[in-house]
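About this split. The held-out portion is used to measure sequence recovery: a designer receives only the structure tokens and must propose an amino acid at every position. Recovery is the fraction of positions where the proposal matches the reference. Here is one held-out target exactly as it appears in the evaluation file.
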């Protein structure tokens, strides 16, 4: 059985991007100064991490064309995504709170804990998704492969330098 490589990209988005962005771009705290008159308005507030994750889950559900018969397997995939986001989000929040007092060793261990939670979450998501994928008919699997390939290549294209053709 072929399992798409999108699982890693999906986990990265669901586990790391949403909680990390929420922390990095959180709402201003109490006592934040009011900008002077004539200052451009700040961008609209981003939805909460949980809301963004639920939007990602719904979007993926729609893109994969999940049928009523597949809902039990889909529910398991969605719950793993939620659990993974919660686990990694908690580690990221802890890292941010302790950042000012971390030693270099503490910093590396914190990063290691996040990476390990990400890896464990990827394994759980791959297992849950494999069950869903196996329940799909071939044409739906082909659609899933295309959805995952498209989602995986967008972030990669921005991060990778242009490669020279092999000689």
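Reference sequence for scoring:
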């Amino acid at each position: 059985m072929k399992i798409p490589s999108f699982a890693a990209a999906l986990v990265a988005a669901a586990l790391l991007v949403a909680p990390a962005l929420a922390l990095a771009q959180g709402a201003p705290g109490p006592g934040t100064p009011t900008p002077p008159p004539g200052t451009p308005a700040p961008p609209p507030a981003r939805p909460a991490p949980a809301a963004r994750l639920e939007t990602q889950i719904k979007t993926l559900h729609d893109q994969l064309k999940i049928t009523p018969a597949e809902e039990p397997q889909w529910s398991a995939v969605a719950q793993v995504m939620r659990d993974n986001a919660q686990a990694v989000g908690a580690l990221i929040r802890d890292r941010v709170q302790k950042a000012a007092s971390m030693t270099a060793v503490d910093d590396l261990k914190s990063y290691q804990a996040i990476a390990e939670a990400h890896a464990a979450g990827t394994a759980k998501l791959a297992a849950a998704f494999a069950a869903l994928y196996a329940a799909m008919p071939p044409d739906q699997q082909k659609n899933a492969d295309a959805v995952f390939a498209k989602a995986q290549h967008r972030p990669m294209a921005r991060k990778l330098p242009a490669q020279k053709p092999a000689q």
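Annotator remark: The chain has five helices and no strands.
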